[in-house]
Amino acid sequence: MYKIILTLHSWIAMLALVMMVVAIVKSLIGWLGKKPYAKSDNGIHASAVGFLYLQLLLGLVLYFFLSPQVRFAGEVMKDTVGRFYTVEHITGMILALIIAQVARSVSKKRGSHAVAFIGFTIALVIIFGVLPWMRMEGLPMLRGL
User: CA-to-CA distance for 55 and 123, rounded, in angstroms?
Assistant: First the structure.
């Protein structure tokens, strides 16, 4: 079960990253082109945030029930892998989700491409900062590359 959920979590992460990039590019084009905020902009932002929420749901299942990397007792803070998965990864991802959600809500309310661009860009930078880049067990679809 762990490997199935981890694989889903990894593949959906790629979709979430693509949607985040699409949201950022579309927001930048709208901002620089002084275009009005459209329903399609909100749809793209909602999709990006929706994928992040799906990631959170799968991540929480891994975090609380399945992951052998997460530990709540012992000297987890002295173990870099344990600390990464128990503290750093989840904290960064939740922070990025909150920023993306706020950016979507505020940009929709104000009709602002600038708010969307800045918020989604900050969220994406945080996400890239806490991805398990060097931990191939965290990205099963990259094994063998």
Answer: 14
Q: Give pLDDT, residue 122.
A: 98
Q: Which of 40, 17, 18 has the alpha carbon at shortest distance from 27?
A: 40
pLDDT tens by residue, 43-63: 999 999 999 999 999 999 999
d(CA 49, CA 31): 20
Q: How far is CA 112 from CA 19, 38, 60, 97, in A?
A: 18, 10, 32, 19
Q: Where are the domains of the chain?
A: 2-138
pLDDT on residue 143:
47
Q: What's the predicted TM-score (pTM) here?
A: 0.88
What pLDDT is attached to residue 134? Answer: 53
Residue type, 18: V
User: What's the full length of the chain, in residues?
Assistant: 145
44, 19 in Cβ contact below 8 A?
A: yes
- The C-alpha atoms of residue 93 and residue 57 are separated, in whole angstroms, by 12
